[in-house]
Write a structure and sequence with these properties.
The chain is an all-alpha fold and 282 residues long. It has eleven helices and two strands, in the order ααβααααβααααα. It has one domain. Strands 1-2 form a two-stranded parallel ribbon. It is flat and about 80 Å long. The protein starts with 15 loop residues before the first helix and ends with a helix.
């Protein structure tokens, strides 16, 4: 189906089937890219797995107790290999699926909005990687602190699948949390969510960010928790300011359009036009 130009379709309206078809195509491209990158993740599996399980080995050495990762099933080691490879593929393919997300949103934006949004969406990749990096640094502390409640003379034989799920969720939760402000700006640019609506939820955002930081860095050092909370809260409020400014600009533009339409509707009909109208009726 041929795409309509912005002049013939100024609102960039699409039928529901076209939206679903576009979403499906973008999703397929993202999935293919992730699977291809997962093949590369297969070769990185052993060094990554060694780095992930290193906190458990440190616990066993420093605390002089049994602590190890347990592969309980016959196929569990292969299942973990596939899961870790796919997770690595998701990270390696992040530039592609972030671009596909942007390409799906972009047709709904006007030219100026595209220019503004391009810079914000272009920040999604470094923010995603920044969230991964912070979570990776905090991961050993989280593992060490959460296992320190084990009673003396007891062992930690941690199921491999359970441990990998914990690490993957920890990494992805922080990575996605850092991208959420960019997503809020994109949704606002589409006109689906106003900045005041986002601002009203700031209390819940602060509570959730504090909870996430407390779980990730549950040590006694309050500064560590603050270092995790600060960038997330700063990004959120920067996104709110951008959304409020965009709403203000959009409201002014719509008011000018409405004012112009109203002026055209209130304009009196000239006498010559009335005479021509009378001739036509005759």
């Amino acid at each position: 189906m041929a795409k309509q130009s912005r002049k013939s379709n100024p609102q960039a309206q699409m039928a529901l089937k076209e939206h679903l078809r576009e979403f499906r195509n973008r999703l397929i491209k993202s999935a293919i890219a992730t699977l291809l990158c997962a093949v590369g993740g297969f070769f990185l599996y052993y060094p990554v797995m060694e780095a992930i399980t290193d906190p458990i080995h440190q616990i066993a050495q420093e605390q002089n107790r049994n602590a190890t990762i347990n592969f309980s099933g016959v196929a569990s080691s292969f299942d973990i290999l596939v899961q870790v490879s796919l997770s690595i593929g998701l990270v390696l393919a992040s530039p592609i699926w972030l671009y596909q997300l942007w390409a799906f949103i972009m047709p709904a934006l006007h030219k100026r909005e595209k220019l503004y949004a391009f810079g914000f969406v272009g920040a999604a990749l470094p923010l995603f990687l920044l969230g991964l990096w912070i979570a990776w640094i905090c991961m050993p502390t989280a593992v060490y602190t959460l296992t320190m409640f084990t009673p003396e003379d007891q062992a930690n034989f941690i199921e491999a699948k359970t441990y990998i799920n914990f690490v993957v969720r920890l990494l992805l939760s922080f990575a996605i949390a850092f991208v959420i402000p960019v997503a809020l700006v994109a949704v606002n640019m589409m006109g689906l969510l106003r900045g005041r609506t986002i601002l009203k939820s700031w209390r819940w955002v602060v509570v959730l960010v504090a909870l996430l930081a407390a779980i990730t860095a549950p040590g006694t050092d309050v500064l560590t928790m603050f270092y995790l909370m600060a960038p997330l809260l700063v990004l959120f409020f920067v996104a709110v300011v951008i959304c409020l400014l965009n709403d203000k600009r959009r409201d002014k533009r719509e008011a000018k359009i409405a004012e112009g339409e109203g002026a055209g509707a209130d304009q009196a009909t000239s006498s010559s036009a009335l005479e021509d109208l009378g001739r036509d009726k005759a």
